[in-house]
Specification:
7 domains; Immunoglobulin-like; 5-stranded antiparallel β-sheet; binds 2-acetamido-2-deoxy-beta-D-glucopyranose; 40 strands
């Protein structure tokens, strides 16, 4: 029951496919044939006919050419899809023919429309040949062999263009030569000619082969593009004169040389003629830029002109750098890529008076004058320009914008830019500039633009592997205030867009009240001497007087005891660490231990270090005091310290007390 349905569905599908797919059918009709008798020396005179085959038939299609003549001859030949040939023997000269093309395939056939002509009218004339030209004016001449000797009816067409143009310019109805009016000077032109021999309906010959002719020179007109590389300081005496070579089509001829005119402020005018034919001349031209480096000291005006065999341009003035003009501040943006430089700026709030144009220049930083340098003039209405170039990676370029006033120029803005930022080098000359107690000034050398592989965004300094300071890229020092006394380590790294460079480290120590300690030690020595003197005096008095004073009641003695205690502690005790109450200072110690640095005053201490500190302190308390560390006397802990060391003092003075002091009961 089910099986008859399947072929039914298949049938429907096939039917659908059949109606949807393109139907192969008879070919579309070709165009009417166009026929001529080509010019050949052999005078074969077969008729060649050409046509358009129409839509691509996709299936094999044959084409045939059919003709009837007025004499009643009917014939046909097989052709290709686009052409067919009527042999000379199948037609008569000077007879009228009707010709059509028939296309046929397995589904049917189609006919073109009919073309009718007289076989005497379809002879193609021979191709003309351009023989020579004259330079001034530029005129080309050709020869043509028409059948009828002395035919005065030949009419020709000429087409021409310059070598850098694609399209041809065509001129019709030319007789025997062609004069090119107002050609571009010193330019190579290409010409082709074709001709018809008899009357306006006659067939045109093929185009002649291309004939080239160069137009003659004329005096150059356009002024040179003159500018100068004045280095970083824009000082006139540092300026190197530069100009752009003119392309020959603009120079209207072969450039023979340049004339530079230097007007000195004392009135002298110096004219330097530099011929380009002299090798090793005064001016050097490379990569379409010429440079000449006369001394411009004391020069008030410079201009340059170019000349060829026909004349010179009008002198182009160099806009000398000047700084005595008031110019507005503009925002200035530079975007440097490997192959392009995009410079843009804001319109000045008010138009700059008398300004002619802008100049955008760039200079590869660190190169000698005129090298890695280029400029472009920009219309005063514009606010951006894109310069093509080949900019080196990791290299600084100084891009500047100038306003030009005929013969003066004025710097408006400049910026350093990199096409690609690299990692910065190690910071050099990193050193302690100044230490005063707990304040330290660190300094380093700015990374020079020639060494820096990218724009330095900031310097990163790390104190004791913990506290990070970011210093802006244009600063080269850092004040560290309120450091704890002791050993410190700081490292510095420069940062660019590409990241942080290698680090440079310094170690230094701070010693609170160092100078004061010296005085204190001296004071203590003096005090001790005084004490001895007093004691001697007292002992003499004791021997002479019955009444014996009790030295333990003497405030002076107590103070001296304390001081002595302190100074001893200062020499012997380990480092103490509650700096907010520090009064007494550190005694110099040549053998620093990095881990022995105190904490508290600087917030930048790691917990780890605190741990170290504590264990060190503990260890030191256990250790002998003469290990070599310094000691800060803690006034808050005076009593405790005093108490602790009481026995020491007592030991020292036990002999004295035993001898001279009555024991308190
Ligand atoms: C030639 O003459 C025949 C008969 O009159 C006609 O059918 C045919 O279309 C003609 N062919 C041409 C190319 O004129
Ligand atoms: C004519 O046929 C040739 C190959 O036989 C083909 O290359 C050419 O494209 C065809 N021309 C046209 C206009 O269809
Ligand atoms: C960049 O060039 C300008 C113009 O010559 C100059 O004034 C400026 O100092 C240069 N900048 C640097 C950083 O060299
Ligand atoms: C003017 O100055 C130039 C260069 O400074 C010097 O060569 C020239 O001799 C001076 N001329 C006079 C007349 O002083
Ligand atoms: C610069 O141009 C101004 C205005 O045209 C002119 O007065 C001045 O003499 C020129 N200076 C020089 C050195 O050519
Ligand atoms: C050039 O830079 C300006 C401003 O930064 C921007 O508006 C413009 O699109 C840039 N042009 C190109 C071609 O990148
Ligand atoms: C430049 O700007 C001025 C004033 O806005 C205008 O008159 C002039 O036509 C502009 N020139 C060009 C070339 O755009
Ligand atoms: C510059 O950098 C680009 C992108 O990283 C790279 O393709 C190119 O090779 C580099 N050129 C040189 C000369 O190193
Ligand atoms: C250290 O710097 C602080 C803050 O600037 C200042 O108050 C203090 O007097 C300085 N100390 C010394 C010894 O220069
Ligand atoms: C600095 O600290 C980091 C972790 O905070 C540690 O890995 C590194 O070893 C320390 N460097 C020094 C020199 O102490
Ligand atoms: C310092 O600069 C780095 C990178 O530029 C940044 O990640 C960090 O937060 C900055 N630190 C401070 C304290 O500004
Ligand atoms: C700084 O001190 C550390 C140890 O405290 C030492 O490893 C480093 O080499 C020292 N650096 C300099 C530059 O003296």
């Amino acid at each position: 029951m089910a099986w008859p349905r399947v072929p039914c569905l298949l049938l429907i599908l096939l039917l659908l496919l059949h109606t949807c797919l393109p139907q192969p059918g008879p070919p579309s009709p070709p165009s009417a044939p166009q026929c001529h008798i080509p010019y050949t020396e052999e005078r074969q005179e077969d008729i060649h006919c050409f046509w358009e085959p129409g839509q691509d038939p996709q299936i094999p299609t044959s084409y045939s050419l059919h003709w009837n003549s007025t004499e009643g001859i009917s014939s046909a030949v097989e052709g290709t899809n686009v052409s067919g040939v009527i042999p000379r023997k199948l037609y008569t000269s000077y007879s009228d023919l009707t010709v059509l093309v028939r296309a046929a395939n397995q589904h049917g056939s189609a006919m073109s429309t009919v073309a009718a002509f007289n076989t005497g009218d379809i002879k193609k004339p021979p191709t003309p040949e351009v023989t020579h030209h004259s330079h001034q004016p530029l005129e080309i001449y050709w020869t043509l062999q028409c059948d009828d000797q002395g035919s005065s009816d030949q009419l020709c067409e000429v087409q021409y263009h310059t070598q850098d143009q694609q399209d041809w310019t065509q001129e019709k109805d030319i007789l025997r030569s062609f004069l090119l009016l107002t050609p571009r000077p010193y330019t190579v032109y290409e010409f082709q000619v074709r001709c018809a021999c008899e009357g306006p309906q006659a067939l045109m010959s093929d185009w002649s082969s291309v004939y080239t002719a160069k137009s003659s020179e004329s005096a150059p007109v356009k002024a040179l593009d003159v500018w100068s590389d004045c280095g970083v300081i824009s000082e006139l005496s540092q300026c190197a004169l530069m100009w752009k070579e003119m392309p020959t089509w603009l120079a209207h001829g072969k450039v023979l040389g340049y004339v530079v005119t230097l007007s000195h402020s004392n009135g002298t005018v110096e004219v330097v003629d530099m011929s380009t034919s002299e090798p090793g001349g005064l001016c050097v031209c490379q990569e379409k830029r010429c440079r000449f480096t006369p001394s411009l000291r004391g020069v008030s005006g410079v201009d340059v002109s170019v000349y060829n065999s026909q004349g010179a341009t009008k002198p182009a003035p160099l806009a000398l750098p000047t700084s005595d003009l008031q110019v507005p501040e503009l925002s200035f943006t530079v975007n440097l890529k490997i192959f392009s430089l995009n410079v843009s700026w804001s319109l000045p709030p008010q138009p700059i008076e008398n300004m002619d144009e802008y100049v955008v220049q760039y200079k590869q930083v660190g190169l000698p004058p005129t090298q890695g340098f280029d400029w472009i003039k920009v219309h005063k209405n514009d606010t951006s320009i894109i310069l093509r170039g080949d900019f080196e990676n990791h290299t600084a370029y100084n891009v500047s914008l100038f306003a030009v006033f005929i013969n003066r120029s004025c710097l408006l803005a400049s910026a350093i830019s990199y096409s690609l930022h690299g990692l910065p080098p190690k910071v050099t000359e990193f050193k302690v500039q100044h230490i005063s107690d707990s304040n330290v000034t660190l300094s380093w050398q700015h990374t020079s633009l020639t060494q820096s592989k990218g724009l330095i965004l900031c310097y990163q300094l790390v104190l004791n592997n913990f506290t990070v300071y970011n210093v802006s890229g244009d600063q080269n020092y850092l004040h560290l205030l309120g450091l704890t006394s002791g050993h410190h380590q700081v490292w510095i790294r420069a940062e660019t867009k590409a990241g942080l460079g290698p680090s440079e480290t310094i170690n230094f120590s701070t010693e609170n009240g160092h100078g004061y300690t010296k005085y204190l030690v001296a004071g203590i020595i003096v005090g001790m001497l005084l004490l001895i003197i007093i004691i001697i005096i007292i002992s003499i008095q004791m021997k002479t007087c019955a009444k014996v004073p009790d030295p333990s009641n003497s405030k002076l003695l107590q103070q001296i005891k304390l001081q002595l205690n302190s100074s001893l502690m200062a020499i012997c005790s380990p480092l103490e660490s509650n700096p907010k109450i520090s009064e007494l200072e550190v005694v110099e110690n040549p053998f620093w231990d990095a881990k022995a640095s105190p904490d508290g005053q600087t917030e930048g201490m790691v917990g780890e270090e605190r741990t170290h500190k504590r264990t060190d302190d503990e260890a030191e308390k256990e250790e002998d005091a003469d290990e070599g560390y310094s000691k800060i006397i803690d006034t808050d802990e005076e009593e405790r310290d005093g108490g602790e060391s009481e026995s020491l003092l007592e030991d020292d003075h036990l002999g004295y007390e035993k001898h001279f002091m009555p024991v308190d009961v």
